[in-house]
Amino acid sequence: MTAVSERPRVAESPRAASGDGGQGERGDRRFAAVSHVVLTLWALAVVLPLLWTLFSSFKDSRSINVSPFALPDTWHWDNYVRAWNTIGVAKYLANTVIVVGSALVLVMVLGAMSAYVLARFRFTGNALVYYVILLGNTFPIFLAVVPLFFVLKNAGLLGTYQGLILVYVAYAYPFTVFFLHSFFKTLPKEIYEAAQVDGAGEWRTFFQVMLPMAKPGMASVAIFNFLGLWNQYLLPTVLNPDQDHYVLSQGLYSMASQQGYNVDYGGLFAAVIITIAPVLLMYIVFQRQLHGGVTAGTMK
């Protein structure tokens, strides 16, 4: 007598059991098709203006006015030389690097220390301090520019690097604390206790043990802050009237307004490309850290 083995029956999915598998698959395909169409339109809306600006930066003003969407007949590389030397993009770029770089270092150090203390230590008023800092994210910047103007003027910091750096730090500080708070809060407590047992003080524990463990979050929030501060226009326009300290956004606007009806469009587009190139390069280089940091933050 031959034994007959029974094959295990595969459980039917609820969709197949109910007989609506075909409709479900068609619904999935329609959703995927609509998603791809929306993403394609979004990508075109972002990429096409960038390409138009890039090609326009190699054309002269007449070609831009006559055929704005045509490819350049002659590639005018001198637009970049003129933007760099004559228009003064080099000076504006140096000012921006000084202001944004200094503000970024300060806000990352202060924000990380504040987030670490609020996340790891319990004291009276801990939650109150944290939520007061978070309120800074909801305060409209338009309401703050006039008081900031008079504060900096009375302090003698109006139109200086120091004044703009302090304002940039205050502007980015609440978001930095909010972003890093979750990272420090979920770090293993055992590692902190091990560092204490080994004799490390609080400063050494923070800078040599806990801060390196929050590296994904630090990289992500640094990129977000860099993008926000580099493209800032309102704050430097109001608080930085000294032309020698103009940042890129101010310099480009000043250049376009001073030229009146005789705008050097080729040089202007070249200056725009020089302005956005560092931002685009930083995003391309650090996009993996940015994605990893945001994902880690959401998983925690």
From TrEMBL:
Location of region: Disordered: 1-26
Membrane association type: Multi-pass membrane protein
Keyword Transport found: yes
Start and end residues of each ABC transmembrane type-1 domain: 93-286
CDD domains reported in the protein's UniProt record: TM_PBP2
Keyword Secreted: no
Pfam families xref list: BPD_transp_1
Record's compositionally biased regions (Basic and acidic residues): 1-12
Cellular location(s): Cell membrane
Keyword terms, alphabetized: Cell membrane, Membrane, Transmembrane, Transmembrane helix, Transport
Assigned GO CC terms: plasma membrane
Gene Ontology terms: biological process: transmembrane transport
Transmembrane segments: 31-55, 92-116, 128-152, 164-184, 265-286
Family the UniProt entry places it in: Belongs to the binding-protein-dependent transport system permease family.
Record-given protein name: Carbohydrate ABC transporter membrane protein 2 (CUT1 family)
Naturally occurring in which organism (per UniProt): Lapillicoccus jejuensis
Lineage: Bacteria, Bacillati, Actinomycetota, Actinomycetes, Micrococcales
